[in-house]
């Protein structure tokens, strides 16, 4: 005869939610580092990027570099808040990842493969941060409940 424990389903849900949050934090940190490197490359040397003419969202590549650098630094900082399962970090993480998607979409003609990779990474981050509910989050210093 088997006995079911009502807390075991809740524990596995918490472990899954914690794993998804850690995944989002690591991906946001990696995406931020990669965006910082791309921003530095765009600011330092315009020669490595494709120059397109008659593009609707045409900016100077140095301007794109500063945009990517700022978003990368913000993403890196917010990723540390995600490791602590902060609500503010989840909200900012979704916003920053959405801005990274938009900025990479606009800079798609300059560096197409890299922009598509960053759009995919940021899409996974948005999904991971939106799929978890606050009640499912693991609180590091909570006391165990007696059931």
Please describe what this structure looks like.
By secondary structure, this protein is mainly alpha-helical. The chain is built from 4 helices and no strands. It has helices at residues 6-44, 61-83, 87-106, 112-131. Helix 1 (6-44) packs antiparallel against helix 2 and helix 1 packs antiparallel against helix 4 (112-131). The longest helix is centred in the first third of the chain and has 39 residues, at 6-44. The protein starts with 5 loop residues before the first helix and ends in a 16-residue tail after the last helix.
Shape, principal axes of CA atoms: elongated
Q: Tally the helices.
A: 4
Tell me the span between the first and last alpha carbons.
Answer: 21 Å
- Give the C-alpha Rg: 19 Å
Helix percent reads: 55-70%
Give average pLDDT, whole number: 78
Largest sheet at a glance? none
Structural class: mainly alpha
SS strand fraction = under 5%
Secondary-structure element pattern, one letter each: HHHH
Catalogue the unreliable spans: none
Number of strand elements: 0
């Amino acid at each position: 005869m088997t006995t079911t424990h009502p807390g075991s389903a809740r524990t596995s849900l918490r472990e899954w939610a914690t794993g998804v949050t850690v995944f989002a934090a690591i991906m946001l940190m990696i995406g931020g580092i990669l965006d910082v490197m791309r921003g530095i490359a765009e600011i330092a040397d315009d020669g490595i990027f494709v120059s397109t003419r008659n593009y609707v969202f045409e900016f100077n590549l140095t301007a794109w570099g500063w945009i990517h650098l700022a978003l990368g630094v913000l993403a890196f900082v917010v990723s540390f808040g995600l490791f602590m399962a902060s609500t503010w970090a989840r909200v900012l993480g979704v916003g920053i990842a959405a801005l990274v998607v938009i900025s990479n979409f606009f800079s798609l003609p300059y560096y197409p493969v890299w922009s598509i990779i960053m759009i995919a990474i940021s899409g996974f981050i948005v999904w991971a941060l939106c799929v978890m509910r606050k009640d499912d989050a693991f609180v590091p210093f909570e006391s165990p409940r007696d059931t």
